[in-house]
Amino acid sequence: MGKIGAVFAGFADLASQWAVHTPGGTAGRVQHTGDDFVGFRRGHRDGGVAAWRFERRKMGNRGRFCRFCGLGPPGSGSCPEGTAGRDRHTGDDFGRVRAGEISGSKPGEVYNLVKHVKGKWTGSSNWSTLLDPLNGEQFIRIAEVGEKEIQPFVESLSKCPKHGLHNPFKSPERYLLYGDISTKAAHMLSLPKVSNFFTRLIQRVSPKSYQQALGEVQVTQKFLENFCGDQVRFLARLFAVPGNHLGQQSHGYRWPYGPVAIITPFNFPLEIPVLQLMGALYMGNKPILKVDSKVSIVMEQMMRLLHYCGLPVEDVDFINSDGKTMNKLLMEANPRMTLFTGSSRVAEKLAVDLKGRVKLEDAGFDWKILGPDVNEVAYVSWVCDQDAYACSGQKCSAQSVLFMHENWSSTSLLSKMKDLADRRKLEDLTVGPVLTLSLSRTSPPSPSSPSLSPSVLIAKPNIFFCKAAHLYIIF
Question: Is 396 known to be catalytic?
């Protein structure tokens, strides 16, 4: 009973603390009723670790809080809108841009971030512009760093020691900090209006349907959920092996590289850079992040969100530049590891220039093989269509070539694939520009051949079918 009494005493103490931090716990505040909810707000920092406190608030009094994030009135410091002059979030905006309003008359702007310049977002002497692929307007301005402007980034990386920003012996409380950052960021991405903002922003720069872009946001959110709380420090779990005699042991530690570089492509503007960036940060590295400039506005906005969630601004440098400038930066800064996702041609050059200090995920050529057993034709045709044309075929798992047994030629597979492909249109971004493969030996489709769209070419002796760069081969 003594233990039970102690437990209840603990609850009573917790309740008294709760009363101090809730609107109903102080004089003059409206008491809670059945229509209130629990949210959380960022509290004080203790030893460098963000502490979260729960705050109950009455929904009927919700006008005091931002309808976009639920974390405070705009301009209060609790809201990611900061001191901007907007009265309310509309659900389509975050940080500096409104996804639905980026246009030639209201162009979005993308900045750089480097610790050497007091950890502030900065412009550049050279601003490049992106053309809206739908109407040709200049709808995004990018502060591209030139070769003569890379020195602050070089110095920022060079100042990071090879034992990193934290490790099992240095500032271990930062593992908990990043667990808290992940918690807050995952919560923010779970909010429908935040999720919708990033989904629409991805669509604005990358030809994806709403569901495909939303899937990218959801995968990112689930990744962050997986590394909440203690999960970050569990990544640094060490091992010990008994030695040959008393007092001897062998210990192994997971150690950061220190200064690192991350270069990501255009096809996944949010998922790839966030997953790779957070993985580097969890383990104590100091990364410089370069996202393809055509889509870097998405990650710039995500960086601002991460800063709001507690990410120290000096932990990550963010740069916009062309490939030549970035290559020069890598050669001068000499990061201890570079993670590159992109073309095989650039990957091969980096492997030589960086003397092997690089991890690569380069271009792929993905085969799909249908054997002699014919089943679930409708489902197989749907999977083939999704793998070939979702994201306009610009994804790692995109179907590059389909090999199918001749048994499938007597089914409605190809006609179903044609019907599914014909549903895709630019208006809803279910398909974007896709090149058609030209074969050296081709002839027009014969009347007896399957009903395929006019863009399909059939090669003699009628065993190759090609639609929009995706090959079908009957064997």
Answer: yes
